[in-house]
Structures are given as C-alpha cells and as structure tokens.
Amino acid sequence: MPIQTNNLLKRIYKWRYKNISQKTFIYILSVVVGLLAGLASVTLKNITYFIEASLEKGIIFSSNQLYFILPIIGLTLVYLYVKYVHKEKLKHAVSSILFSLSKNKGHIDVKQVYTQLIIAPLTVGFGGSVGLLGPAVATGAAISSNLGRLFHINSKTRSLLIACASAGAISSIFQSPIAAIIFAVEVFSLDLTMISMLPLLLASISGVLTSYFFMGNEVLFNFSINEPFQVKDTLFYIVLGVGTAVASIYFTKMYFGIINLFKPLKSPKYRLLVGGSAIGIMLYMVPPLYGEGFSFINDLLKGDHISALGKTPFDAYMGNIWIVIALLFGITIFKAVAMTTTLAAGGAGGIFIPTMVMGSALGNVVAKLINNSGLGFSVSESNFTLIGMAGLIAGVQHAPLTAIFLIAEITGGYALFVPLMITASISYIITKNTVDYTIYTRELAESGELLTHNKDQAVLTLMDLDTVIETNFKTVNPEMTLGEMLHDSVAKSTRNIFPVVDADQKFLGIILLDDIREFMFDTKLYNTTKVETFTHKAPDHIYYGLDSMQIVMQKFQDSGAWNLPVVKNGKYMGFVSKSKLLTAYRRELIRFTK
C-alpha cells in the first residue's frame, strides 16, 4: 500500500477514535455495508439481464435447439475465468461464508468481491438453472469482511457486518427488509439481541432503499391478493405443507446425489461437457428451467400457465389440463436436477431462487389437482403458488420464519399469514426431522465447523486446536535406556508425561513419571532397562485435522485424562491439556457473549 494512502488511513483512524464511539461507528458501517450489498445485487441483476437481452436480440431465441448450446457456452466462459483468472476452486457461496465465520474469523478473500459479479451472470445469463441471491450475498459478505479488516474491526463485529451484508443483499433483491433480517438470524445463527438487531435493521433499510433508487418501484412479483384465506381450505394447506416437505427432502437428497455422481469426473472439462449437455437437454424439454425463473413464477401468479410453460414439444396437447399438470410437476422434479447439474458442471449461483421456482410449480400443481378432482372443491391457484414457495423455502433452507415473512412482504400484505404459517411450519418440522442439515450446512456440520444457535457448540466451533496444543514435552525413544531417559529427558523436563516416538516421530505411546518413580534411584537398571518396558497406550488420541473441538472435549470427558496426545498421520505433534482447553473455552465464551 502506498505511503500516502497509509498516512491518510492513519489520520482517519485517529479522527474516528477521537470523535466516533465504537457503537456509532458500527451503525455507520452497517448502513454502508447495506448500501454496497444492495449495489452488488443491483449490479448482478443488471449484468445478467443485459446478457439475456443480448442473446434474445442476437439469436432467434425461440428456437429450442439453441437451448442446448447456450449453457455450455456460459459454463465454458466460467471455466476459463476460474482457470486463468480466479485460479482457485469455486465454493458454494453461502457455505463458504459460514466457514469463514466459524473457522476464519470472518475473513473473506478480496477476490470474492468481484468474482461472483462475473461468473454468476455468465452462468445464469446463458441459461444455468440457478439463482443470483447466493452470489449477491457472497459479494456483499466479501465487501463487509474487507471493510471490517480495513478499519480493524474485531472478528465478532466483522461477523455481524457479514450478516448485515446478507440482509442488505436480500432486502435489495426482494424488497423485503423484515425477511432479510430474519434470514440473517436463521441462516447465520446470529443471536437476535438489540446489539445485533439495530445494525441488521439499518443494513436492511439501506439495501432496500438502494433497490428503490436504481430499480424504482419495479418488483419481482407483480401480484396482489384478491382471494383471502378461507378456513375451509385449512386441510388443503396442511396437505400442501406435507407435499412441500416431501419435495424439500427430495431437493436436498437430489442435490447431494448429483454432486456425488459428478465426483468421478476429475477433469473440470468433462464435468462441463457432461453437465452442460444435460442442462441443454432439460431446457429443450422444459424451457422454463432456463435461468432463474422469475418470469415463470409471475406467469403462474397471473394464472397464465401456457405462458409459464412456454414452447415445449407438447404444445399440441396444452388444452388438456392433465398434460399441463404433468408438465408443471415435471418442473418440480427437474428444477432441482437442473440447478444441481449447473453447479456440479462448474457454474456459479444460489439455491434460494430455484427453491422458490420449484415451490411455485408444486403449489400450482396441488391447486390444479384440487380444482380438477371432480369433487366440487375450489381453491385459489395463485395463493397456492405463493404458499408453495414458502413451504419449499422453509423445508430446504430450514428457515420457516424467512419463508413466512418473505412471501408476506412480496405480496404487499399479511392476508395469507395463517396459511403461510400452517404450510411453512409443517414443511419445516417434517424436513428437519428427516434431514438434519441443509445444503449449506451439511458438510460443515460433519467436519464440526458449523456455527449454530447452541451457544456451547458455537463456542467450541470457534475455538482453534492450534491455540491449545502444547509442545514443551520431552520425547523419548523406545530404544533409550532408563539412564538416558532420566538424564536427557526427566531431568530437563517440567512435565510429568513423556511421549514415546520412533526415529520418524511416529507416536508409540506415553510414559508417566509415576510409571518410573520407583525405579528412578535403582542404578542397576539404568543400563539394562529400556524405555519400551515402561511404555503404555495413551487413554485416547486427538487426531489433528480430523477431530473437531466438540470431539476433543468429548474425548476428555470419556477418558478422564488430563492430557491427550495430538497426532497427525500417525506422527506426534504435542499434547492438549484439559486445564488449557477449559481456559481457552472460558476465554472464547466471554468474547462470544460480550
């Protein structure tokens, strides 16, 4: 950094410390973060729309055969950018943020500020069946993280600013400030206190105002509720809740199934060709799978399922309502497949908006089935379309409150609040009891790197094993004599435990001072007895890089030991003592709850 810039920053720091309190400064930063996250969201949308509009003007877009080639072109452009510019493996946007919060103290590489602004529009604009919300959140999070580092903000406040960025991004995209705050709390496991509430509120307001400033009163869903909730439809909303729960479980399992299916394809080129071709075939059969799918949702809300489905190979049969229902159900099935295939093939995007598309199709299908069952029932298809979205969001994201308030806000009222609560809560309860973790969190949870609302678990997740490993133990070799051990190790050590290792530092066991105490003064044994005679197994082992802090704590509890050895690939690294571990835990707990 140039000297002049450094001096300028120092003057700014001094002025800030003298004139602005820490609390006020956080409020100011939250507004700035919300504004920048909102700008990032608007930029993402505009770039994507520009690409889509360019393709529509430059190509006969209605020709279905072109759908086959467009995703491959987009994925190829993303591949070239990642290989020659980004030079790192792409990670899922929200999962990478959660990892940075739990294990990297909220540090996010500055490259993430602009990377998602490039690769996400290329993916979505060329037909990738993913959303822009995840990339928008990731961009905002990267901005807030680096802004926090610039102003020397501590890790806890930096995490709060990242949550503020997500609130700003969501508020800007959906123009739903309340749902944006709730999303930050539910997904990022943020404690909802007044300390965090006000910054989130400011960031959310800043984000939505940014959207209004650049986009005007343009809304994603141009819809107003004409048919209010009727008590007689309660049973049908319960059925929809069960249906969206099943769909949420399918969505999650299909995601991991397809990701695992692509793992044998080691080369990104093969994944690109296979994935791009598969997406092209799906787009040919079901054109609404193209891109994000907001126009599909809007057409369903207007009751125009013909426009929603677009041109398909089944156009001649669209007068048959059961063919329409089958095609809409096909979207419910294949949206999850198309989305995951796009990501597995190397594309960039989010899962939130595909979840909404899938939910809208399912809700509309359920309503059409009820209305055409011949039993004399009649329900609002547009209402079921909306509430289907809420059910999928609640189930897939494990975020029922976000689902309820998001749909309530984007419809401009709370007339459907009761059915939203019914469907979202049922979907969440069933899904949560079937699938423990979401697409965002499963891998992090399995590796013990996931922050949750459980304060004890969150503190353990934030702790770093490296900070509690002690290495001031004198090692001994099994071939050493008792005399050599006493002279070279015991006499020079302040500890009462000695790790036994071979010439390659492979951990073989331990010797306690108590094990040799009665033999220490018997000089006859000094040259005739070897260390291996006294060696025995440790009560347990801590496996570096494999054991989470929760597992480490459990091992201390189960073994009753005060010191446990740390090994990596079988080699000795040091010890962790229970006293140091508990001291570090208390220190982290105090920092976490400040």
List descriptors.
24 helices; mainly alpha; about 600 residues; Clc chloride channel; ion transport; two-stranded antiparallel ribbon; CBS domain; 4-stranded mixed β-sheet; CBS-domain; membrane
Structure in words:
The chain is elongated, with a radius of gyration of 29 Å. By secondary structure, the protein is mainly alpha-helical. It is built from 24 helices and 6 strands. The longest helix is centred in the first third of the chain and has 37 residues, at 22-58. Strand 5 and strand 6 form a beta hairpin. The protein has helices at residues 3-19, 22-58, 65-86, 93-103, 112-125, 133-150, 155-174, 177-187, 194-215, 234-262, 268-285, 294-301, 305-309, 321-344, 352-371, 381-397, 400-410, 417-434, 442-446, 455-462, 482-490, 513-516, 549-559, 578-593; strands spanning 469-470, 497-501, 507-512, 542-543, 563-568, 571-577. The strands form 2 sheets. It has a 4-stranded mixed beta sheet with strand order 1-6-5-4. Strands 2-3 form a two-stranded antiparallel sheet. It has 3 domains: 5-215, Clc chloride channel (Orthogonal Bundle), CATH 1.10.3080.10; 231-442, Clc chloride channel, CATH 1.10.3080.10; 457-593, Roll (CBS-domain), CATH 3.10.580. The chain crosses the membrane at residues 24-44, 64-82, 113-140, 160-185, 197-215, 235-258, 270-290, 317-337, 344-366, 386-407, 414-431.
Task: Tell me the radius of gyration.
Answer: 29 Å
Order of helices and strands: HHHHHHHHHHHHHHHHHHHHEHEEHEHEEH
Shape: elongated
Average predicted local confidence, pLDDT: 82
**Largest sheet, described in full?**
4 strands, mixed
How many distinct domains? 3
Any low-confidence stretches, pLDDT <50, length ≥5? 59-64
Could you give the distance between the termini? 33 Å
CATH class of the largest domain: Mainly Alpha
Per CATH, the architecture of the largest domain is Orthogonal Bundle
Instruction: Enumerate the strands of the largest sheet in spatial order, edge to edge or round the barrel.
Output: 1-6-5-4
- Number of helical segments with 4 or more residues: 24
Q: How many beta-strand segments?
A: 6
> What is CATH's topology name of the largest domain?
Clc chloride channel
Superfamily at the CATH H level of the largest domain?
Clc chloride channel
